[in-house]
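Backbones bend. To wit:
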Amino acid sequence: MDMSKREYDELVQRLSPKSRLGADVLRAFLVGGIICLLGQALLTLYQTIGASAQDAATWCSITLIFLSALLTGLGWYDDLANFAGAGSLVPITGFANAVASPAIEFKTEGWATGLAVKIFTIAGPVLVFGSAASVLYGVFLCLFQ
């Protein structure tokens, strides 16, 4: 089937789903805000029960990572991501999901070639570039401070 570029563009335009940008942005904002609100509530709770600010922040991070991994394992984080889009990618929960998601699929390939390899499929580049950026930042500070 020979199509001109214009005919192809018209076909793509006709068959592509219509974006509801306003609704998508609103859902992302609300869900991301709720995740951040949960983080703030946890931080306040841990400080209220006697944790120092630094310990409360650590426990808040641990709790958010745990909840994200749990929801990923139950298959609920995918539903949340489908609903919220980028709103579910709030850094700590999105990163925990990115590590837990591929790791869940290890069962078919075993521990070494499954879990050990798949767990860093998505998170690996983030860790590499994050580590490299922190080293460069440290060198920059040492040289120019």
Remarks:
- Helices lie at 5-15, 21-48, 53-74, 76-84, 91-104, 111-118, 123-144.
- The chain has a mean pLDDT of 86.
- The first helix runs from residue 5 to 15.
- The two ends are 65 Å apart (CA to CA).
